[in-house]
Amino acid sequence: MSAPPRVLTVAGSDSGGGAGIQADLKTMLALGVHGMSVLTAVTAQNSLGVQGAWELPVEAVRAQYRSVVDDIGVQAVKTGMLASAELVETVAHLLAGTDAPAVVDPVGVSKHGDALLAASALDSVRTKLLPVATVATPNLDEVGQLTGVRVGSERDMRRAAAAMLEFGPRWVVIKGGHLSGDAVDLLSDGSEEHWLRAPRHDNRHTHGTGCTLASAIASYLAKGRTVPEAVTAAKTYVTGALASGFALGGGIGPVNHAWALRGDGPR
């Protein structure tokens, strides 16, 4: 039996299992690819927030990456929490030397507003990481952090995409989930635009949405889809996961990564 497509996530651990490495690997399994991981940081995290975060040494991150890529190989790489400027620059250098599409989720804060990226690392994200991204997937807060563009309506999303593309990614997905109305995202490469819409589900359990979307895009790219095809399919998967997110602990529960496997689709 031949191996399925291989996808590598470079991200932090979420001890509560809703986001980070754990969400990435669940997404990859659900979408039929082989998920592998490079751990960049450990968080003490649950449905209420992040109680602590500890980044790994650069040497440990580099060794994990080389171990997987040099032996097993990858068809796509996804990045999430990178914590510091040193880790951002290390991962950017590794991606630049890897012949596979890279999906960069420029994680700045958690769902609960806890910082997951040092302020000093923002310039490294702009100048080192985004230029090697095949697709960047910022939410509106991350767009504001990186570009200064504040998005208050769909009309502003095109301006946000242009500002992000100036940093060098081939494509950008501006995630409009924080706006009112339908959940709308804009995919753009500066000349081609795709507006992706889905109904907004009345469900507060949305932890891990951004990690899940980026991992789904990487999974579909590894399976040979074009960027527009991969992002469209990933949007469908995330919409189902959001619709069936479930309560866990005393705060915000996770999206349901297994919804398609269990038949728990949008309802």
Topology:
Layout: E1 6-14, H1 20-30, E2 34-46, E3 49-55, H2 58-71, E4 76-79, H3 85-96, E5 102-104, H4 122-129, E6 135-136, H5 140-147, H6 154-165, E7 171-175, E8 183-188, E9 193-198, H7 209-222, H8 227-243, H9 259-262
Parallel strand pairs: 1-2, 1-4, 4-5, 5-6, 6-7
Antiparallel strand pairs: 2-3, 7-8, 8-9
Describe what is shown at a glance.
With 267 residues, this protein is α/β, with parallel strands linked by helices. The chain is built from nine helices and nine strands.
Question: What features would you describe in this structure?
Answer:
The protein contains nine helices and nine strands. The protein has helices at 20-30, 58-71, 85-96, 122-129, 140-147, 154-165, 209-222, 227-243, 259-262, and strands at 6-14, 34-46, 49-55, 76-79, 102-104, 135-136, 171-175, 183-188, 193-198. α4 (122-129) links the parallel β5 (102-104) and β6. It is globular, with a radius of gyration of 17 Å. The mean pLDDT is 92.
Radius of gyration: 17 Å
Helix content: 25-40%
Strand % is: 15-25%
Question: How many strands?
Answer: 9
The total count of helices amounts to 9
Main structural class? alpha/beta
CA distance, first residue to last residue:
36 Å
Give the assembly state of these chains: single chain
* Overall spatial form: globular
User: Which sequence of SSEs, written as H and E, runs from N to C?
Assistant: EHEEHEHEHEHHEEEHHH
Strand line-up across the major sheet? 3-2-1-4-5-6-7-8-9
Largest sheet: 9 strands, mixed
